[in-house]
Amino acid sequence: MNIIQPPIRYVAKNMRLDQRLIAEMIKPGSRVLDIGCGDATLIDHLFRTRGCDARGIEIDMAEVTRAVSHGLPVMHGDADNDLAYYPDNAFDYVVLSRTLQAVERPREVLRHMLRIGTRALVSFSNFGHWQVRWKLLRTGKMPVTAVWGRPWFDTPNIHPCTIADFFELCEDEGYLVEDWLAVDENGRRSPWRKSARMANLFGEQGLFLLTKA
Amino acid sequence: MPGGSGRLACVGKNAYMAGMDGTESAPIAHQHVRFTGGLTLECGVTLPDLVVAYRCYGRLNAARSNAVLICHALTGDQYVIERHPLTGRGGWWENVVGPGLTIDTDRFFVICANVLGGCMGSTGPMSPKGDDPNDLWGTDFPPITIRDMVRAQKKLIDHLGIERLFAVTGGSMGGMQVLEWAATYPDHVYAAVPIATAPLHSAQNIAFNEVGRQAITSDPAYAGGLYWRQGTVPERGLAIARMMAHITYLSETALTRKFGRRLRTGTAVSFAGDTFEVESYLQHQGSTFVRRFDANSYLTITRAMDYFDLAAEYDDDLARAFSGTKTRFCVVSFSSDWLFPTAQSRDVARALNRAGANVSFVEIDSDKGHDAFLLDEPDFHRALAGFLSGCAEHAGLP
User: Fold this and answer.
1) B186 exposed, middle or buried (CB, 10 Å; 0-12, 13-18, 19+)?
2) Residue partners of A148: CB distance under 8 A and separation at least 6
3) What domains, with CATH codes, occur in chain B?
4) CB-based contact (8 Å) between B382 and chain A?
5) Beta partners for B111?
6) From CA A6, how far away is CA B58, in angstroms rounded?
């Protein structure tokens, strides 16, 4: 006989920092697709606290099983192969948190995000952070830091980028940066709120809210 | 309405079943409802009299909003969690359905109907054609489709006074019915869980079915489909069909783990017979099957599966089958299922995405093959229970 555990109720304090910041940017009652949603913590949070119709895609089957077991609408799939199957303008927000650097074709993924959704929310770890730059300069080897914790031959992060790179890509692709912020290791947002250059040096994570221009 | 008894229950005329010795055994009374208005099938033929045999478990709530319809597979039936009246064995989904289990009968009102074309009380080849109880349909039974099966079930659901099913679920051919339910009656299905199934029956699967059908029809005892007139059963053909089909329900890993190359009797080597354990296992599967299943039913239902191609009903666009649907879906497949491989479930999930549907999709890691949906798979049970709980919360069910 199998015992069915009651679903675990996630609360915001269990969420990663970038997920909390993303949640704050999403208007209540929105339709949200979270790509690379993991165990769907953000989806549950958006449903419970903001009344959103939030769904997810996740590549790791164990995470998918866990999310579905908690009653959350998650499907197995990945950003590179499954976004093509979503219709235009099906969501208000399409979220890609800490996944951009691991996809095969980041530009196409972003295009799909802004086709499927009105707005895209993208968070990524900033490869332009001073520690990364310093380690590469000092040792001459691929930097291994707390954020970029795995050696070059054993990392899923095949497309790391900096905050400056991302601004440039948005301009090339014609995306409007409606809002952006960078945070340091401790989640503090200032003092680089106004300066992209400072953010690129001291911001550990970048978070962008995009629309089509 | 515990156990489906009470005013909705309707136990009436008996269904007939041929016994294993070929003679007509004592008729079994299956709980059923008769629709004298009949049913016009997709092929155009009208069945003047439609009987749907069914079983219910749990209690229908006052709002009639907690009903879960279970659709059984090819050789399953409505006896989901109780002693089978013919074989005396336990129900086929006892590990999933019941009080406190994955599909919790303390919470949900569970219904399962014998499919149209079946041989456990619903109208099928062993049913009387007209008023004469000894003149059966036999091979004259019209070809039926998965949609015909679902339309027969819809009549039962209407009869039970249920406007919207909380959930419809089932594996294999049951999963085909789930997809057909969601496509044909979207407003009457709140949640749909198609398990180990496909949006169409593949050429490979049609091929396997055809071998089974050939085994049956080439058995001299089949007598051109009129075996029931002479009181025989094409045991040999039916058993071979079952043995072959049974292999497709398992995986190489599962067979190896269960039997390996173990010999049945020490080291004796013989030309024929059941030398290996796996052989005697299959022969047992075959011989027990002929006791409970009608050959013409087997032909009718396998044909219905072969005809199934949901997209074909919607201009070859599977997404159109679900356009505008509000139903919440959970598509489940099993990693070692080669009869209904994950790729086919993924096609369903992607079509649902194109339709903008709310869909969960999970492939359960299992080495037990297609039959995994019937077996002890904790991840599957957790996912199914969690999905139903989540849907219950959205639907406002207690």
Assistant:
1) middle
2) A125, A127, A132, A155, A157, A160
3) 2-202+309-395 (3.40.50.1820), 204-303 (1.10.1740.110)
4) yes
5) B56, B69
6) 20
Cα A30 to Cα A50: distance, rounded to the nearest angstrom: 8
Between strands A53-58 and A74-76, the pairing is parallel
Tell which residue, B199, B142, B231, has the closest CA to residue B317.
B199
pLDDT 10s digits, B376-390? 999 999 999 999 999
The sign one gets for the Cα dihedral B270, B272, B273, B274 is positive
ipTM of the complex: 0.88
For A150, phi then psi, to 5°, come to -115, 150
Chain-centroid distance of CA A166 in Å reads 13
B354·A1 Cβ contact <8 A = no
Establish if B361 touches chain A: CB-CB under 8 angstroms. Answer: yes
Cα of A83 to nearest chain B Cα, Å = 9
Q: Which of A4, A67, A85 sits opposite B102 (nearest CB)?
A: A4
Cβ distance of B385 and A82 shorter than 8 Å:
no
Q: Which of A75, A80, A81, A89 to mutate to test the interface with B (most CBs of B within 10 A)?
A: A75
Beta strands in chain A, from DSSP E residues, in sequence order? 31-35, 53-58, 74-76, 91-97, 117-125, 175-183, 205-212
What does the buried/exposed string (b/e) look like for B270-301 if buried means 16 or more CB atoms within 10 Å of the residue's CB? Answer: eeeebeebbbebbbebbeebbbbbbbbbbbbb
pLDDT tens digits along A53-87 = 999 999 999 999 999 999 999 999 999 999 999 99
pLDDT tens digits, B186-231: 999 999 999 999 999 999 999 999 999 999 999 999 999 999 999 8
Give, in degrees to the nearest 5, the angle at Cα B177 between B138 and B88.
60
CA distances B342 to A78, B245, B339, B346, B389, Å, are 15, 19, 10, 6, 24
How many other CB atoms sit within 10 Å of the CB of residue A33?
Answer: 25
Nearest-CA neighbor of B283 among B233, B234, B338, B246? B246
**Domains of chain A (ranges plus CATH)?**
12-126+161-212 (3.40.50.150)
Cβ-nearest to B389 among A2, A7, A85: A7
Query: Which among A5, A53, A61 is the nearest to B365, CB-wise?
Result: A61
In angstroms, the CA A77 to CA B342 distance is 12
For B54, the enclosing helix (H) or strand (E) is strand B50-57
Catalytic residue among B65, B127, B172, B336: B172
